[in-house]
Amino acid sequence: MFKTYFEQLIPITPTDSIDTDKLADFVTHTHVRKVLEQIQETYPNVNRETEEIGLALAYLKHYLPASEVPKLYTLYGDFSYQAFIFEEVNGDDAIGISLDMFLGPDYPYKALDPQNPLFSDYISRRYTRQYIPIKVLGIMSEDILGPLPGKRLIDYAIYEGKKQYLFSKIFPKRTPAELLEYTEAEYDWCVKSQLGIWDLYLDQELIYETNQQKINSYVNEAPRAKGMPEASPGRTAHFLGYQIVKAYMEQTESSLSDLMAVKESEEIFRKSKYKPKRN
Asked: What does pTM read for this prediction?
């Protein structure tokens, strides 16, 4: 962890030698000490989080026996990544959890850098301890799924749909809204507006669109989806992808390992026979 931390996350020592002056400056810096105090106050322990992560890993091992169980490290990450996977010196995978990115909605994230979209209120509201297990298993699921199979909206949708379907199995006590990182109101809006979302994608010919500017608010973080009401969340393609994958699993009666093995978005889309119903 030392090598990863000080060579990549907090680049103080780019070689095998340690710059003791820079190291001393870092560990005694007023800002760093202040954030560490906040972390220790917010997280006297992470027992609740590690218990849920452990249960999710047990489910994951049940459904996907080849999956590895990584070592977990909690740390101060200088407000960079919430969670990241790295390789230890013995070759095993490990996951770092930056607790400074889970200090709660009252922490003044926006004041750190008002221009950074990751510190926008609609995103930082999720920087809470309840999302730690989801972020940790999210990193693992992306490692299991491999790279995004393409740049079309349908590729993003199916990729995230597979991830959400996996989550639904390994986090059985979580709500779909939590797993999609929506508020309950946002999730309810998506459920009620499923046909409208689908119609917009068809009308705008977005399903196979690759232009990132055109599909960005549907596949990435955004305060709301372009062309949709104020109540809509961003990332509506994630919601729709989950519906498509659920339909695929019902149509094909596949196992979770079978689903993870299918890399072609088009195959899942076609076999799902997805068509939202009118309310």
From this structure: 0.93
